[in-house]
Amino acid sequence: MFIDVAKIHVKAGKGGDGIVAWRREKYEPAGGPYGGDGGNGGSIILKADEGIRTLMDFRYKRSYTGQNGEDGRTKKQFGKAGEDIILKVPVGTLVKDANTEGVIVDLKEKDQIFVIARGGRGGRGNAKFATATRQAPGFAEPGTKGQERDITLELKLLADVGLIGFPNVGKSTILSIVSAAKPKIANYHFTTLKPNLGVVRVGEEKSFVIADIPGLIEGAHQGAGLGHDFLRHIERTRVLVHVLDTSGSEGRDPVEDFYKINEELGQYNIKLIDKPQIIVANKMDILGAEEGLAKIKKEFEPKGYKIYPVSAATSGGIDELKYAIWDLLSNTEIIYETFDEQFMHEEDIDTSIIVKKEDGNYIVEGAFIERLLGSTYFDDVDSLRYFQDMLRKKGVIDELKELGIQEYESVFICGYEFEFFD
């Protein structure tokens, strides 16, 4: 598991200006104000999409600007609203303010949406300002600016694809070719002492995470060669890519290797045997590989396995392998699991809230409140309302009342002074 991070700039569109216009028609000599309102600016919207697996696309484009609203028109016609921009992000993306590092939203549900930058409001035309005493207003309202902010997208990634096989069959080399990962590679066993992960981009909004799972040897299910640690990572993958040394350069039989590795998987967790698995016949550039490939095909093609001959040394066959993995992933159901503490190796998020009265002062503090405060824009009505609603939902208002706070008294929230209103 590793953290995929992208920092981007989002700027919503400006609202269109209202206009000053007058009704000028043949049979309306005393025509009144006729100016229409400007259209609202386009917003920047984040949407959690389970078809998106990584944040790689945001490394190619880092700035997003919403469309401005059109100015109002005569005959009280509204200007056209600017189009919203919808940015698709993976389910589980944490969105932070890049300046304060405060958490804005956790997009943890499929199709969840969040307006990260709201478009500016269109200005009112002079027709909206007409009253009984002001029948000919000669002014209109300009549109307001859209919200603009720098945000950080953060995603905890687990591998979609696990590269499995005996040590020194070329897994790390394959990983380095298909992704931007830079694993340590050498011609001896146990080069890799922890899973190396990389992101593979197939096309726009098409990418996946691949991991070189090291240390699989006979006895791994009993802990040999750090087996339990590595097998735990395999449990979280959706697809397995089994790399075999087709040339037999290590003096081993690739067919026997396949069965031995799968036996270790089954001994650890029988469900691992049911994971979709394709075979990579590696080292096709070495003398004797053709004979090995023929043997592998004879053994496994009748059993329904897809076999992809490649040479990690020359990159031969790598593109075909990459697209084959993507096709397999696209047809494999995503299963969301609850990660155990041993696997996550993360500190629990502190959600405690402290409400107290000291020396006559009412004080609210805690990690959760600090994050909430840091992600609130107090000049934005929706953001402020969300802040107030969260204080109420978390019981902060009730606790302050129990401590005896009265209307208009001060309450200090993480060092900032607020006036209390119920």
UniProtKB/TrEMBL annotation:
The UniProt record lists the Obg domain at 1-158
In short, the EC number is 3.6.5.-
Required co-factor(s) are: Mg(2+)
| Swiss-Prot/TrEMBL keywords | Cytoplasm, GTP-binding, Hydrolase, Magnesium, Metal-binding, Nucleotide-binding
Residue ranges occupied by any OCT domain in the UniProt entry: 343-422
Q: Which InterPro entries match?
A: G_OBG (IPR031167), GTP-bd (IPR006073), GTP-bd_Obg/CgtA (IPR014100), GTP1-OBG_CS (IPR006074), GTP1_OBG_dom (IPR006169), OBG_GTPase (IPR045086), OCT_dom (IPR015349)
Q: What is its main location?
A: cytoplasm
User: Which residues does Mg(2+) bind?
Assistant: S172, T192
* A Pfam entry, by short name: MMR_HSR1
Superkingdom of source: Bacteria
Tell me where it resides. Cytoplasm
Residues bound to GTP:
165-172, 190-194, 212-215, 282-285, 311-313
The similarity comment for this entry is: Belongs to the TRAFAC class OBG-HflX-like GTPase superfamily. OBG GTPase family.
Q: What does this protein do?
A: An essential GTPase which binds GTP, GDP and possibly (p)ppGpp with moderate affinity, with high nucleotide exchange rates and a fairly low GTP hydrolysis rate. Plays a role in control of the cell cycle, stress response, ribosome biogenesis and in those bacteria that undergo differentiation, in morphogenesis control.
Question: Entry's PANTHER family?
Answer: DEVELOPMENTALLY REGULATED GTP-BINDING PROTEIN-RELATED, MITOCHONDRIAL RIBOSOME-ASSOCIATED GTPASE 2
Q: What is this protein called?
A: GTPase Obg
Q: Which organism is it from?
A: Tissierella carlieri
The taxonomy runs: Bacteria, Bacillati, Bacillota, Tissierellia, Tissierellales
